[in-house]
Amino acid sequence: MKKLIISTVLAMGSYAGVAQAAHVECLISGTATKQFWTADMCSAQTNTSRPGVAFRFVADKPVQEVTWSHQAINSGKWRCNTSSYCNFSEDGRGEVDFFADATACVTRVLYQDGTWENNNHCATGLYVKPDNRFPADGGELEQ
Question: pTM higher than 0.85, yes or no?
Answer without folding.
Answer: no
